[in-house]
Amino acid sequence: MLAVKLLPYLAAWVAMVLVLLRTFSGNRPVTAAAGIVGFAGGVAGTQALFHASSAELAIGVVKSSVGVGFLLLWGVSVAAIYRSTGRNMPAWGKRFAHTRLFAGIVALAAGLLMGGVTACRVAGADAGAMACLLAALAAGVLAGAVLAVEKRLPQAFTVSPAGLTAAVVALLLFGSSSIIRLDLFAPLTMKVMKFAHDFVHQFFESMLIPDHLFFSTGTWHYIGLLFGKGVGFWGALIIWFIPVILILLAISVERLPAVAHIRQGAARRKMVAAAVRSRRLRLLVPAASALVLAAAVYRSTFPTVEYWDPKPLAVVATPNGEIFIPKKGEIDLEDGKLHKFLYKQGGKQARFMVLMTTGGKLTVVLDACAICKPDGYGQTEGSVVCYYCKTLIPLETVGKPGGCNPVPLPFAEKADGVHLDAITLVNTWDTTVQTTTRIKEDGK
């Protein structure tokens, strides 16, 4: 089963090595060797972090590194557009870009990141160490095979530095998209949605525009669209694809070589045709990178991870308004799983959850947060996930207020179970969840 999980990552590694070798065709042995060493180092380093420190630290280091790579892609894409206007890099920069040292550094960095992403997929499993070792060995064998095959590709097929960056980052994002704690697209949608929410709020506050009669219901409806999940999704898509689009545009508008000094018309046409063909071939890698990024979005939006999402159990309150849930009984509150409950009082109802954190303490929270619509939470891979915005909340932070964390509830833990006040539960639900629902649906 672990071998099946590794197949997409090894396939991404093969594509990455192929692009690296084609980019640094003059330094193939160094590029392949540095890539293999980097992959093995990334796997070993991530595995060591998992065992020596914590999974959160290992995940955080790899996720931050991939995020830096995405920011680098933005910088490279802007630079590519700048150079397409006829401005080239300094002569010393061109010379360094063709050295063995530069090829080795790029291949080593790419291998480290890909090895780290691959290790994150299996490092937490029981056979994680063995799977990581097999992945490193397989990566070396596959890199050697690609080195032998790549030499047979047409010499006209080249990869620009910007295309290389797009391919490497796209493959890393594709690999991380299937690991829910490593995924970058879902947090990006949340950041965009939060920015839109804060911008509208601050704008209305600074302009001193309260709920006024001259703002019709229809106007508030359109304003409310800025608080929807679609704003975050489409805004994130724009940020996600713009770098690759800029690189495609930069290659497309590259100037053709000057042919005025060539007297023979046939020679001119031949040179121009060769330049046009080379430009079209260099468009293939960034175009394929755009497809890989689209696949990453799909894997992030429709993850194959299974969530633990139990059906809420109905509870009642005692005559003095106290809700009691025993630790042992129909369910075991201390089994490490998320447990949901539903309390009804007259025409009102409230959902809440009880679970044991990684610190070994029980916590009681609403099945909703103060930001999103109350779609509830599921549990997976050491975290709980908000179904509305796909934000991951580590188990150790559940019970703490703020952000997309479930709203904490006051409770008392005793030897027999947990006790909480029913009126406080209903009031907390009303003041947070129903207000959030009204904002999301009505825009007020």
Question: Which short descriptors sum up this protein?
Answer:
single chain; 444 residues; Rieske Iron-sulfur Protein; 4-stranded mixed β-sheet; 58% helix; elongated
> Biggest sheet: strands side by side, in what order?
1-3-4-5
Beta content comes to 5-15%
Give the structural class.
Answer: alpha+beta
Helix content: 55-70%
Separate helix tally: 13
Q: Could you tell me the radius of gyration in angstroms?
A: 27 Å
Strand element count? 10
Run of helices and strands: HHHHHHHHHHHHEEEEEEEEEEH
Biggest sheet record: 4 strands, mixed
Look at the structure and give the mean pLDDT: 83
Number of structural units classed as domains: 2
How far apart are the termini? Answer: 49 Å
Low-confidence stretches: 438-444
Shape: elongated
What does this structure look like?
The protein has 444 residues and is of the alpha+beta class. The chain has helices spanning 2-23, 28-52, 55-83, 91-97, 100-122, 128-150, 161-177, 185-206, 217-224, 229-252, 265-282, 284-301, 422-442; strands at 313-315, 322-326, 339-345, 348-356, 362-366, 377-380, 383-386, 392-394, 412-413, 417-421. The protein has a four-stranded mixed sheet. The chain has a three-stranded antiparallel sheet with strand order 2-10-9. The chain has a three-stranded antiparallel sheet with strand order 6-7-8, with no helix packed on it. Strand 6 (377-380) and strand 7 form a beta hairpin. Helix 1 (2-23) runs antiparallel to helix 7 (161-177). The chain is elongated, with a radius of gyration of 27 Å.
